[in-house]
Every structure is written in structure tokens, then in C-alpha cells.
Amino acid sequence: MIQSPIGVLFALVTVAAFFFYLEKSTGWKVFNLFPPLLFIYATPVLLNNLGVMPADSVVYTGMRDFGLPVFITLMLLSVDIGAAVRVMGKGVLVMLLGSVGVVVGGVVSFLVVHGWLAEDAWKGWGALAGSWIGGTGNMAAVAGALDTSPEQLGLAVLADNLVYVVWLPILLGSKAFAERFNRWTKVSDNRVADMEKAAMELHRDDSPPEMRDYLFLAFIAFGVTWLAAWIAPLL
After folding, report:
1. Does residue 68 lie in a domain region?
2. Contact present, 19 and 30 (Cβ < 8 Å)
3. pTM for this entry
4. Is residue 114 part of a domain?
5. What's the pLDDT tens digit per position in 165-200?
6. Would you say residue 175 lies in a domain?
7. Does residue 138 contact residue 18 with C-beta atoms inside 8 Å?
8. Where in the sequence is the domain holding 114, given as residue range(s)?
9. How many domains, in total, are found in the chain?
10. Helices H, strands E: what count in the chain?
């Protein structure tokens, strides 16, 4: 069994890199139905059951407590909130209402079926709701905040992808009704053009990054993480 923290970290990084590389290099259609993230979540659980990786490690807690908020901070650095609000308009309200619907619906649906579920299934339910509100990064953040077990997180990821397999064809098929839906919701025909224009206006520096750039990113990411950890107990 792999016991050392560096060995566990190497194994986790290897699993993630392997499946992303496999998706990019092979083009297998299986990844259209089951994205690499599903295998990345499931493989460490399988390795743990086979006795290859430990169930507990300082790497797991370190990635949850420090790595996750650092990565989320880095992901959000390029988001222009003001421009997004200006372009989306009423879409922001629709998105917020959808998020509220997911939260309320998650609670109601869990109350209906919780009698047939494990005692800690609510944590997986919360992680799943986090995914539907803010994507995979948010799922990981919610799972970390709720201390979701690997088993429940794996089930949440599986449910997320199964719903995706059903929902995506419906979403793609609804394109035929886009114009009528836009007229009903009074969405401007120029909305998509405005979004593309806003994306083009975003300044991007294509010069190669230097060491000071990485240090600056590290300063922001770790600073925000420390500040969040300091504020959290006060809330």
C-alpha cells in the first residue's frame, strides 16, 4: 500500500493526468457519456478498496482545506463580474432563481427518499446540488465543506453524469424552439452577439509567463485562502 504523503499525491495526480490525457489523445466516444472526472473520482475509491491507497492521509485533508480554495481562487481570477452582469441582464436573475430551485428541490427530494438512503447520504445530496448550482468546482467545494465521504461523493458524481446524459440530448433538441422561446421571454436577438463582443474585448496578454507572474498568482491565491479561513469561524 502507498503510505507516504508524496506517494499518495503522486498517485492522485497520475490518475487525473492519465484520464485527461486519454480523453485528449484517443477521442473515445465513451468520454462523451462519461467524462474523465467520473473516472478520476472513482479510481482512487477503487484503489482504496483494493488496498493500494490509504483511506486516510494528510494529503486528503490538505487538498480539501488548502488546495481546493487555492484552485477555486485561481479559476475565478479571470471572471469579469461587471461585464457578465451587463451582458446577461435578466439572465442573472434567472440563474439565481434556478439556484434557489435546486437548493429547495434538493431538500424536498431528500426528505421524500431519505428513508431508503444511508445516514450520511445528505452530504452527497449537498455535493450534487453544489454541482448543479456552480459546476464541478463547486461540487468539490461543497463536498469538502460537508466532509462528504468518498463513497457518497462517488454516487453524487455518478448521479450528476447520469442526469447529464439524459438532459443534454433534451437541451440540444430544444434548439429548434430557441427563436420562439426568445420571443416569449423578450430576449434581444443581439444578446449572443453582445456576449461574443464582450469576450473579444477581454484583454489577454499572450506573452510567456515569468516567475514573478506565478509568484503573484500564488500571493493572491494563498492570501484569499488565508483570509477566507480567518473569516469563516466568525460567520
Report:
1. no
2. no
3. 0.58
4. yes
5. 777 667 766 767 777 777 777 766 666 566 656 656
6. yes
7. no
8. 78-204
9. 1
10. 12, 0
Residue 163 lies in a domain: yes
Per-residue confidence band for 120, with pLDDT thresholds at 50, 70 and 90: confident
Residue pair 48/97 in contact by the 8 Å Cβ criterion: no
Give every CB contact of residue 170 below 8 A, 6+ residues apart in sequence: none
Cα angle 146, 140, 85; round to 5: 110
Tens-digit pLDDT profile for residues 49-107: 888 999 888 998 888 778 888 888 888 887 766 766 666 666 677 778 888 888 888 88
Grid cell, residue 39, equals 473516472
Q: Which three cell numbers stand for residue 186?
A: 423578450
C-alpha cell at 97: 432563481
Q: Which three cell numbers stand for residue 42?
A: 472513482
Residue 116 sits at the vertex; the CA angle it makes with 114 and 119, to the nearest 5 degrees, is 60
Cell of 229: 479561513
At 81, list the grid cell.
463580474
